[in-house]
Design brief:
CATH topology: Rossmann fold
Distance between the termini: 44 Å
Number of strands: 7
Strand content: 5-15%
Number of helices: 14
Structural class: alpha/beta
CATH superfamily: P-loop containing nucleotide triphosphate hydrolases
Oligomer: single chain
CATH architecture: 3-Layer(aba) Sandwich
Largest sheet: 5 strands, parallel
Helix content: 40-55%
Length: 293
Amino acid sequence: MLRTNHRYFERNMEPIRLPNAIVAGAPKCGTSSLYFWLAAHPEVCASPVKETFFFADEVNRFNKTANIREHSLDDYAVYFEKCHKAPIRLEATAPYIYYQNALQHIPGLPSQPKLLFVLREPSARLYSQYRFERFRTKRITEDWATYAQRKELWLHGDYMHYLQPWLEALGPERMHVSTFEALVQDPQASLQSMAAFLGIDPSFYATYSFVQHNETVAIKNKKFHRLGLAFQRYVPHPLQEALLPLYLRLNAGKMPQKDPGDKGITARVKQDYAASVHALAKAFPTLDLTPWA
């Protein structure tokens, strides 16, 4: 059960101890790269780990020492204890878009965080997640056709189902919605738009070198990978940037070739999302969804 003193902490916690910017979704939409790109800005101080999972609906291996179900906001504030002088204090937990605990608690935080959501064409996002779970984490063995029929996973691409409650809780002035496709095609323009939304200098990204993070690759040694994740929080972000190519050479391999039959299945899944995409376009008319056509 949730602790009964959370509202006390929310009312009395100093805002500078908590994040005022959160990348809240969606998974497999470039949020890892976005986290590092934002963290590189001199006016941004990011949590030492990308995904704190503090507001997750369940306790997992990522948040067992600090989560909203068993701990107070004081435990969450530890992630930002070195950030009190930074204009922007950032974290990025991509599944927050789906979590009820996140929706319940984040809008009322005393730091009044702004939330950034990055969305990807739904069928492509689901296929990327499938390949991630099949060939990287190896949590599943089923084929794409079977995976695509799982309704609870399909729902994760029905973005308005999740964004509407966030919109009602935050208001449009505290939400920035963009697309993975725009982030890939023109990261400079995308990051400058986000910087303006956060109130920091967009010109930093005019000369910034954008390096992709968390590309779906096959992990050779899972124990080594988990060890790396455990120590990640102790490594400064610039050093992480420098060590990433070396780590990938040591512990990453090529993903298996895509099955030729997967393309037809993806096309059918894309058709199933047509009404959902139309609803998203209607709710966010300035969002360019032409690459999803």
